[in-house]
Amino acid sequence: MPSYVIVGASRGIGYQYLKTLSKDPSNKIIAVARNVDATQSQVTSDNLANVHVVQGDLTDAESLKAAAKQASEITGGAVDHLVVNGAYLSHGTAFMKPSDYVGKEQYFLEEFNASMTANVAGVMFAINAFIPYVLKSSIKKVIVISSGHAAVDFMAVAGVAEAIPYAISKTAVNMLVAKFAIEYKKDGIVFLAMCPGVVLTQAESLDQLPPPAREIYDKMTEQFQKVDPRFKGPMSPKDSVEEQLNLIGRISMKESGSFLTRKGTKEWLAQ
Ligand SMILES: NC(=O)c1ccc[n+]([C@@H]2O[C@H](COP(=O)([O-])OP(=O)(O)OC[C@H]3O[C@@H](n4cnc5c(N)ncnc54)[C@H](OP(=O)(O)O)[C@@H]3O)[C@@H](O)[C@H]2O)c1
């Protein structure tokens, strides 16, 4: 029975992991969420089998240690796959360029600290909490959900000057993943920072988005298509997670510590 722990599983891509993985009755799935009641009631209403919801917050290391202990009791000791998905998405800074922070330095520091705390320190706390149980597995895979915002050369080509606290936190977490890969190479743990692609998590389809949000996606699609005409716009969480799981299944020590797309490449917009 392979086990999967998804940290940050209440919504979006994290919740899609629960939906996709629960289709295979041989999987044992542990959902780590800040709000257990809300996540559990969604899991119950969607009738997801083999999903166990436990409390955990990326900004609270003790909660992650407790979640890891609970997870190990559910799985019988070992954690085969750890997916650290949750992140602080700094919405207020999503469209701010470096010069927009002149006179807003305090705001920058607040958003920067929140992004770095959850998206970098929180990822380290989560991995450190679960690693004793990952070490007991024969599969030993740790995946951190990163972002194309961390692909420095790609950002320059795509002309994205915004989303600074988020982008820096995702760039930093890629380095953290590389450091973990170096430390645990001797133990055979495979670490990967993975970009899930552009995924539509706020609605079932673009048509359901309110006009301002729709306009943002349309503009982004136009901008990205100039860089890579293969880009067709945001994909569904279902399609993204299927490809992510496919990659997780096939990666090996050869790729450990890398930052790759869900297809296992560096082609950030390929679909
Ligand atoms: N969607 C995309 O196009 C895209 C592209 C590139 C990368 N990503 C990455 O993919 C991951 C998932 O994004 P998403 O689009 O699914 O976002 P989302 O729908 O906004 O979901 C974010 C998830 O993170 C959880 N979370 C936030 N802060 C947390 C904390 N302190 N502790 C534990 N969980 C926390 C949220 O839980 P609550 O319900 O408790 O808030 C929620 O489950 C993120 O790492 C994101 O950076 C997404």
From TrEMBL:
Top-rank lineage group of the source organism: Eukaryota
GO MF term list: oxidoreductase activity, acting on the CH-OH group of donors, NAD or NADP as acceptor
A Pfam short name: adh_short
Signal peptide feature range: none
Keyword NADP: yes
Keywords: NADP
Transmembrane segments: none
InterPro entries registered for this protein in UniProt: NAD(P)-bd_dom_sf, Sc_DH/Rdtase_CS, SDR_enzymes, SDR_fam
Keyword NADP assigned: yes
Protein name (record): NAD(P)-binding protein
